[in-house]
Specification:
Helix content: over 70%
Shape: globular
Distance between the termini: 37 Å
Oligomer: single chain
Order of helices and strands: HHHHHHHHHHHHHHHHHHH
Number of helices: 19
């Protein structure tokens, strides 16, 4: 009898995924840490209205970045075989779209500033548009490196770029350059990233451009572009509504709360979703292996994301004023509401790459459209009741659309709701116990907690409670934690 072939995910692919996740964690930690440092410095130096103005400016820049990339670079990870004409077409097309997008932003900068009643953002917005053509010179090289699970190289690229770009931004902020600090960071970081990306992969672009290849990929990526724009609008429409209905200072408060939660969540989750595209693409034709790979990744992402988000939410009334300054105390209340996003935030981050890999374009469009429409309706309904109501409406929208997301994933991939819940169940339960314990500790009689000593001691206590709870509640995680020292020793060898 022939021996049963080894499971594809349990062997080499699992090891490559684990290694890539480790390096991607390093990459995202560096990105998030330096971004957070710069954000804290600016929040302390700038007025709340300045932060709100930059938030509005960032929405415009990010929307045009999605249009400029046109989903072209992502096709490199999905393509089974790469031809010279295909790569040249992707590279030259993205360059062209990036330059056109930058010129469009420059032309629209003044009207956008006038529309938002924020004249000071026109010139910074125009200058920041140069990031788009700059990034186009290294995006294809980076995608080729990632295709081969070269996440170590990209991690080092991010560390170097983040260190230099972050340092320049902090120096600019202390020099009194205000909004320009973030613009300088983006430009410096992108230039360094391009240089390192091109050095990481030995490929020289040519001019074998094929319009047929471009047309075909644009048709395939139309859904991806729409989904990315809809996702951006779903997250940022609240800021636009707040700016028009309440004012830029309120946008600054809202953005500070959400940006902090977003940095924590992305830092914990995105290292896994970045690798998920390459991993799931290789097992998408085997339903059993697909479920196994999906569960393996989402369980580990949840183990990091849930305690980080829940713990921060519980400590937000202390953490926000301590880190950002007393003028941002109101943002601490909003951050507590956003912490309830831990479950849908994590599952949503995996839904899009999973559906994309499986070619479920209609499902992606249905999900993103539903999230956007419901988000706009709930935000407008909550606007008369203030920032807290808008934050609650955003969290409510996430839970209302979660069943649809799970249903579409089940229909497309065969990944059952129980598979997702089983993977995240133990981290969710342990994080809930930790959050309750921290909330009780902060409300004990005579507990007037404030400042760094209280924040650090409560953070350490919360981490200990979470670790003990996870160890006690889950046999699988107990085994993983006990085998961790051996795994680390093997990785050094």
């Amino acid at each position: 009898m022939n021996a049963e072939p080894p499971a594809r995910f349990d062997k080499g692919l699992r090891a490559r995924s684990r290694s890539s996740i480790g390096w991607t964690v390093l990459r995202f930690l560096s990105d998030q840490i330096f971004s957070f440092i710069v954000f804290v410095v600016l929040a302390r130096l700038l007025a709340r209205a300045d932060i709100g103005a930059f938030a509005i400016m960032a929405v415009t820049a990010e929307a045009f970045r999605i249009i400029a990339t046109a989903g072209l670079v992502q096709t490199i990870a999905r393509k089974s075989e790469l031809s010279a004409a295909f790569l040249d077409t992707i590279y030259r097309s993205q360059q062209g779209f990036s330059f056109l997008s930058a010129l469009t932003i420059i032309a629209l900068a003044q009207p956008i500033a006038a529309w938002m009643n924020a004249p000071d953002i026109a010139l910074p917005l125009a200058v920041m548009s140069l990031v788009l053509p700059i990034s186009s010179f290294g995006a294809t090289h980076l995608a080729l490196r990632l295709r081969e699970f070269g996440h170590r190289t990209t991690a080092l690229r991010s560390v170097v770029g983040g260190l230099i770009g972050g340092t320049c931004a902090v120096a600019a902020a202390f020099a009194g350059l205000g909004l320009w600090s973030l613009v300088i960071q983006r430009l410096v970081t992108e230039i360094i990233g391009v240089v390192l990306s091109r050095a990481s992969y030995d490929w020289k672009p040519g001019w074998r451009f094929d319009f047929a290849i471009l047309r075909g990929n644009l048709a395939l990526n139309a859904t991806l572009i729409y989904v990315q724009l809809a996702s951006l609008a779903t997250v940022r429409v609240q800021e636009m509504v707040i700016g028009a209905g309440i004012g830029l200072a309120a946008v600054g408060v809202y953005r500070t709360a959400w940006r902090t939660v977003e940095l924590i969540g992305r830092g914990a989750i995105q290292p896994f979703t970045q690798v998920a595209v390459q991993t799931l693409a290789r097992v998408k034709d085997d339903p059993v292996e697909l479920r196994r790979a999906y569960g393996w990744m989402i369980s580990r992402a949840a183990a990091l994301a849930f305690p980080a988000l829940v713990g921060f939410g519980a400590l937000a009334p202390i953490a926000i004023p301590t880190v950002f300054g007393a003028k941002w105390a109101e943002a601490g209340q909003l951050a507590q509401i956003f912490a309830f996003m831990a479950l849908p935030f994590t599952l949503n981050f995996f839904a899009s790459p999973s559906l994309s890999v499986l070619g479920a374009s209609r499902s992606l469009m249905s999900l993103s459209t539903t999230q956007l429409v419901l988000g706009v309706i709930l935000t407008l309904a909550a606007l008369p009741y203030g920032l807290l109501a808008i934050a609650i409406s955003y969290v409510g929208r996430a839970y209302l659309t979660l069943p649809l997301q799970i249903l579409l994933l089940r229909r497309t991939s065969g990944i059952r709701p129980v598979d997702s819940l089983r993977a995240v169940g133990a981290p969710l339960a342990a994080s809930t116990l930790m959050g309750v314990a921290l909330a009780v500790a902060m409300r004990l009689p005579g507990a007037h907690l404030a400042g760094w000593p209280a924040l650090l001691s409560l953070t350490a206590g919360g981490a200990l409670i979470y670790g003990l709870a996870l160890f006690a509640l889950s046999k699988a995680w107990r085994t993983r934690l006990l085998s961790l020292p051996l795994t680390l020793r093997k990785s050094r060898i």
